[in-house]
Amino acid sequence: MNPDAPETADELAENAPGKSGIARRFRGFLPVAVDVETAGFNAETDALLEIAAVPIHMDSEGRVYPGQTVSAHVQPFPGANLEASALAFTGIDPHHPLRIAEAEGPALKKIFEPIRNAIKGSGCSRAILVGHNPAFDLAFLKAAVARTGIKRNPFHQFSTFDTATLAGLAYGQTVLARAIAAASIEWDSNRAHSAVYDTEKTAELFCKIVNLWGDLARLER
Protein backbone atom coordinates (compact mmCIF):
# COMPACT_ATOMS: atom_id res chain seq x y z
CA MET A 1 0.00 0.00 0.00
CA ASN A 2 1.27 3.46 -0.87
CA PRO A 3 1.34 5.60 2.31
CA ASP A 4 1.11 8.72 0.16
CA ALA A 5 -2.01 7.55 -1.66
CA PRO A 6 -5.16 9.69 -1.21
CA GLU A 7 -7.55 8.65 1.53
CA THR A 8 -10.60 6.59 0.57
CA ALA A 9 -14.10 8.05 0.88
CA ASP A 10 -14.66 6.02 4.08
CA GLU A 11 -11.39 7.24 5.59
CA LEU A 12 -12.22 10.83 4.71
CA ALA A 13 -15.66 10.48 6.33
CA GLU A 14 -14.21 8.87 9.45
CA ASN A 15 -11.57 11.60 9.88
CA ALA A 16 -13.77 14.53 8.90
CA PRO A 17 -13.57 17.63 11.11
CA GLY A 18 -16.25 17.63 13.81
CA LYS A 19 -16.41 13.85 14.06
CA SER A 20 -16.47 12.76 17.70
CA GLY A 21 -14.15 10.11 19.07
CA ILE A 22 -16.87 7.50 19.10
CA ALA A 23 -17.83 8.29 15.51
CA ARG A 24 -14.23 7.72 14.44
CA ARG A 25 -13.87 4.62 16.63
CA PHE A 26 -16.89 2.82 15.15
CA ARG A 27 -16.83 4.20 11.59
CA GLY A 28 -19.75 6.56 12.06
CA PHE A 29 -21.97 4.10 13.91
CA LEU A 30 -23.12 4.81 17.47
CA PRO A 31 -23.29 1.64 19.60
CA VAL A 32 -26.60 1.38 21.47
CA ALA A 33 -27.25 -1.50 23.85
CA VAL A 34 -30.76 -2.93 23.47
CA ASP A 35 -32.71 -5.69 25.17
CA VAL A 36 -36.28 -6.80 24.53
CA GLU A 37 -38.56 -9.01 26.57
CA THR A 38 -41.14 -10.88 24.56
CA ALA A 39 -43.97 -13.39 24.70
CA GLY A 40 -42.16 -15.95 22.55
CA PHE A 41 -39.41 -16.47 20.01
CA ASN A 42 -41.18 -15.56 16.76
CA ALA A 43 -40.75 -11.88 15.99
CA GLU A 44 -43.59 -11.89 13.47
CA THR A 45 -46.25 -13.49 15.66
CA ASP A 46 -45.23 -13.10 19.32
CA ALA A 47 -45.71 -9.96 21.37
CA LEU A 48 -43.00 -7.45 22.17
CA LEU A 49 -43.53 -6.61 25.86
CA GLU A 50 -40.55 -4.53 27.02
CA ILE A 51 -37.74 -2.67 25.31
CA ALA A 52 -34.81 -0.71 26.74
CA ALA A 53 -31.86 1.06 25.15
CA VAL A 54 -28.60 2.59 26.40
CA PRO A 55 -26.48 4.72 24.03
CA ILE A 56 -22.73 4.35 24.45
CA HIS A 57 -20.59 7.47 24.82
CA MET A 58 -16.85 8.18 24.83
CA ASP A 59 -14.88 10.45 27.16
CA SER A 60 -11.91 12.65 26.31
CA GLU A 61 -9.52 9.79 27.10
CA GLY A 62 -11.14 7.53 24.51
CA ARG A 63 -12.88 5.28 27.03
CA VAL A 64 -16.49 4.31 26.42
CA TYR A 65 -19.24 4.39 29.02
CA PRO A 66 -23.03 3.80 29.16
CA GLY A 67 -25.33 6.75 28.65
CA GLN A 68 -28.85 7.27 29.98
CA THR A 69 -31.33 4.41 29.81
CA VAL A 70 -34.61 4.82 27.95
CA SER A 71 -37.30 2.16 28.23
CA ALA A 72 -40.92 1.31 27.58
CA HIS A 73 -43.47 -1.32 28.52
CA VAL A 74 -45.28 -2.37 25.36
CA GLN A 75 -48.85 -3.49 24.81
CA PRO A 76 -49.21 -6.70 22.79
CA PHE A 77 -50.14 -5.81 19.22
CA PRO A 78 -53.63 -6.93 18.07
CA GLY A 79 -53.66 -10.68 17.52
CA ALA A 80 -50.23 -11.20 19.10
CA ASN A 81 -49.37 -14.65 20.40
CA LEU A 82 -48.61 -14.90 24.13
CA GLU A 83 -46.67 -18.05 24.96
CA ALA A 84 -47.34 -19.10 28.55
CA SER A 85 -43.83 -20.50 28.96
CA ALA A 86 -42.26 -17.21 27.86
CA LEU A 87 -44.42 -15.21 30.26
CA ALA A 88 -43.50 -17.58 33.10
CA PHE A 89 -39.81 -17.16 32.27
CA THR A 90 -39.87 -13.35 32.28
CA GLY A 91 -42.51 -12.98 35.01
CA ILE A 92 -44.34 -10.39 32.90
CA ASP A 93 -48.13 -10.18 33.10
CA PRO A 94 -49.10 -8.21 29.95
CA HIS A 95 -52.55 -7.48 31.36
CA HIS A 96 -51.57 -6.44 34.90
CA PRO A 97 -53.67 -3.37 35.85
CA LEU A 98 -50.61 -1.53 37.23
CA ARG A 99 -48.47 -2.17 34.16
CA ILE A 100 -48.22 1.17 32.38
CA ALA A 101 -47.74 0.07 28.78
CA GLU A 102 -47.91 1.85 25.44
CA ALA A 103 -48.82 0.66 21.98
CA GLU A 104 -45.85 -0.32 19.83
CA GLY A 105 -45.81 2.91 17.81
CA PRO A 106 -45.59 5.36 20.74
CA ALA A 107 -43.21 3.02 22.57
CA LEU A 108 -40.77 2.90 19.65
CA LYS A 109 -40.95 6.66 19.16
CA LYS A 110 -40.12 7.08 22.86
CA ILE A 111 -37.06 4.85 22.39
CA PHE A 112 -35.94 6.24 19.04
CA GLU A 113 -36.08 9.97 19.81
CA PRO A 114 -33.20 10.04 22.34
CA ILE A 115 -31.23 7.62 20.16
CA ARG A 116 -31.55 9.94 17.17
CA ASN A 117 -30.46 12.84 19.39
CA ALA A 118 -27.43 10.83 20.53
CA ILE A 119 -26.55 9.95 16.94
CA LYS A 120 -26.72 13.59 15.92
CA GLY A 121 -24.83 14.79 18.99
CA SER A 122 -22.00 12.33 18.42
CA GLY A 123 -21.60 13.08 14.72
CA CYS A 124 -22.55 9.53 13.84
CA SER A 125 -24.74 8.55 10.90
CA ARG A 126 -26.64 5.62 12.42
CA ALA A 127 -26.98 3.44 15.51
CA ILE A 128 -25.65 -0.09 15.68
CA LEU A 129 -27.36 -2.49 18.06
CA VAL A 130 -25.32 -3.96 20.91
CA GLY A 131 -26.93 -7.03 22.42
CA HIS A 132 -26.35 -10.42 23.96
CA ASN A 133 -27.24 -12.68 21.04
CA PRO A 134 -28.56 -9.56 19.29
CA ALA A 135 -30.16 -11.25 16.27
CA PHE A 136 -33.14 -11.92 18.54
CA ASP A 137 -33.48 -8.30 19.68
CA LEU A 138 -32.95 -6.87 16.21
CA ALA A 139 -35.55 -9.20 14.71
CA PHE A 140 -38.23 -8.11 17.21
CA LEU A 141 -37.26 -4.46 16.78
CA LYS A 142 -37.50 -4.64 13.00
CA ALA A 143 -40.81 -6.53 13.13
CA ALA A 144 -42.31 -3.87 15.40
CA VAL A 145 -41.02 -1.10 13.12
CA ALA A 146 -42.65 -2.83 10.15
CA ARG A 147 -45.97 -3.26 11.97
CA THR A 148 -46.11 0.38 13.01
CA GLY A 149 -44.99 1.83 9.69
CA ILE A 150 -42.14 3.83 11.21
CA LYS A 151 -40.03 4.96 8.28
CA ARG A 152 -36.86 6.07 10.04
CA ASN A 153 -35.44 3.17 12.01
CA PRO A 154 -32.17 4.60 13.44
CA PHE A 155 -30.52 1.17 13.66
CA HIS A 156 -28.40 -0.54 11.04
CA GLN A 157 -30.58 -3.15 9.39
CA PHE A 158 -28.33 -6.16 9.95
CA SER A 159 -24.98 -5.29 11.57
CA THR A 160 -24.70 -5.69 15.34
CA PHE A 161 -22.17 -6.04 18.17
CA ASP A 162 -22.70 -9.35 20.00
CA THR A 163 -21.51 -9.33 23.62
CA ALA A 164 -21.80 -13.12 23.73
CA THR A 165 -19.12 -13.34 21.04
CA LEU A 166 -17.04 -10.53 22.53
CA ALA A 167 -17.21 -12.04 26.03
CA GLY A 168 -16.29 -15.44 24.63
CA LEU A 169 -13.17 -13.86 23.18
CA ALA A 170 -12.33 -11.70 26.21
CA TYR A 171 -13.30 -13.99 29.09
CA GLY A 172 -14.12 -17.44 27.69
CA GLN A 173 -17.77 -17.01 28.75
CA THR A 174 -20.84 -16.62 26.55
CA VAL A 175 -23.71 -16.81 29.08
CA LEU A 176 -24.53 -13.25 30.15
CA ALA A 177 -24.46 -13.84 33.92
CA ARG A 178 -21.15 -15.73 33.69
CA ALA A 179 -19.62 -13.14 31.38
CA ILE A 180 -20.67 -10.39 33.78
CA ALA A 181 -19.05 -12.25 36.66
CA ALA A 182 -15.86 -12.83 34.67
CA ALA A 183 -15.73 -9.10 33.93
CA SER A 184 -16.10 -8.32 37.67
CA ILE A 185 -19.37 -6.48 37.10
CA GLU A 186 -22.07 -6.65 39.78
CA TRP A 187 -25.00 -8.95 38.90
CA ASP A 188 -28.33 -9.46 40.68
CA SER A 189 -30.10 -12.56 39.38
CA ASN A 190 -33.36 -11.37 40.96
CA ARG A 191 -33.41 -8.40 38.60
CA ALA A 192 -32.45 -10.33 35.48
CA HIS A 193 -34.91 -10.75 32.57
CA SER A 194 -36.02 -7.15 32.89
CA ALA A 195 -35.29 -5.24 29.70
CA VAL A 196 -33.85 -2.30 31.66
CA TYR A 197 -31.55 -4.38 33.85
CA ASP A 198 -30.32 -6.66 31.08
CA THR A 199 -29.68 -3.70 28.77
CA GLU A 200 -27.72 -1.80 31.39
CA LYS A 201 -25.59 -4.85 32.19
CA THR A 202 -25.03 -5.56 28.50
CA ALA A 203 -23.91 -1.95 28.05
CA GLU A 204 -21.50 -2.26 30.98
CA LEU A 205 -20.08 -5.49 29.58
CA PHE A 206 -19.61 -4.01 26.11
CA CYS A 207 -17.82 -0.97 27.55
CA LYS A 208 -15.60 -3.13 29.74
CA ILE A 209 -14.47 -5.22 26.77
CA VAL A 210 -13.96 -2.26 24.42
CA ASN A 211 -11.93 -0.43 27.08
CA LEU A 212 -9.93 -3.57 27.83
CA TRP A 213 -9.07 -3.88 24.15
CA GLY A 214 -8.06 -0.22 24.08
CA ASP A 215 -5.83 -0.67 27.13
CA LEU A 216 -4.11 -3.66 25.51
CA ALA A 217 -3.62 -1.77 22.25
CA ARG A 218 -2.00 1.13 24.11
CA LEU A 219 0.36 -1.22 25.93
CA GLU A 220 1.55 -2.66 22.61
CA ARG A 221 2.49 0.72 21.16
Query: Structural class, judged by helices and strands?
Result: alpha/beta
Tell me the distance between the termini: 21 Å
**CATH-scheme architecture:** 2-Layer Sandwich
Chain-averaged pLDDT = 91
The CATH superfamily is identified as Ribonuclease H-like superfamily/Ribonuclease H
What are its keywords?
about 220 residues, alpha/beta, Nucleotidyltransferase, domain 5, 6-stranded mixed sheet, 8 helices, about 20% strand, globular, disordered N terminus, 3'-5' exonuclease activity
List strands and helices in order, with pairings.
Layout: H1 9-14, H2 21-25, E1 29-38, E2 48-58, E3 64-66, E4 70-73, H3 84-90, H4 104-122, E5 126-131, H5 134-148, E6 155-162, H6 163-171, H7 176-182, H8 195-219
Parallel strand pairs: 1-5, 5-6
Antiparallel strand pairs: 1-2, 2-3, 2-4
Helix pairs in contact: 6-8
Description of the molecule:
By secondary structure, this protein is of the alpha/beta class. It has one domain: Ribonuclease H-like superfamily/Ribonuclease H (Nucleotidyltransferase, domain 5, 2-Layer Sandwich). Helices cover about 40% and strands about 20% of the residues. The protein is built from eight helices and six strands, in the order ααββββααβαβααα. It has helices spanning about 10-15, 20-25, 85-90, 105-120, 135-150, 165-170, 175-180, 195-220; strands at about 30-40, 50-60, 65, 70-75, 125-130, 155-160. Strands 1, 2, 3, 4, 5 and 6 form a six-stranded mixed sheet that branches. β2 (about 50-60) and β3 form a beta hairpin. α6 crosses α8. The longest helix has 25 residues, at about 195-220. The protein starts with 8 loop residues before the first helix and ends with a helix. The model is unreliable at about 1-15 (pLDDT under 50).
